Amino acid sequence: MQQRWDEGQHSAKILHEELQAKGYLGHYQRVKMAVAPLGRGLPLDEPRERPPSPREAARWITTHPHRRNLHINDRLPRLLEHCPELRRTHDLVRRFTAMLDNHDATPLPDWLDDLAGSGLAPPVGLAGAFREDRHAVAQGISTPTTPLSTKAASPTSSCKNV
User: Fold this and answer.
1) Which terminus in the chain has less CB density within 10 A, N or C?
2) C-alpha to C-alpha distance for 31 and 26, rounded to whole angstroms
3) CA distance linking residue 94 with residue 89, whole number of Å
4) In this predicted model, what pLDDT tens digit does every residue of 42-91 receive, in sequence order?
5) How many C-beta atoms lie closer than 10 Å to residue 5's C-beta?
6) Residue 39 near residue 10 (C-beta atoms within 8 A)
7) In terms of Cα–Cα distance, which of 90, 149, 158, 74 is closest to 123?
């Protein structure tokens, strides 16, 4: 935008159209607000990304890296760099999902120790609950799951003998 402004294009509408032609999906109003300082002879502000909401951050952390879009895979490491608690949470979640993916509960005792020692209140409580039922948790991790068939899951199939 700075280059086009310097070339004499001072219409936010036209700049927005040009950006859209290059793949920009943002609203016209954002372009208008971005070029407003240029009209007053001020430098163009550095673009700032909105920080993710707690719900978004949780979704980013719990989504398998291969299923995240490239934008999230770019932003998540920067978020984790600025928040050590989220980085610990992310590492714990990824390690647990690796156990689930591999159906291997061997790392469970060490993972529970790390979970309990994380210093994060909710995971510490979870570690206590998992320790109480450690054998059931290990069995759940080690047992491959198969999806229920639609027939077995239908309400009418379970009610035939009633």
Assistant:
1) C
2) 8
3) 9
4) 877 766 677 889 999 999 999 988 898 888 888 999 999 989 999 999 99
5) 15
6) yes
7) 90
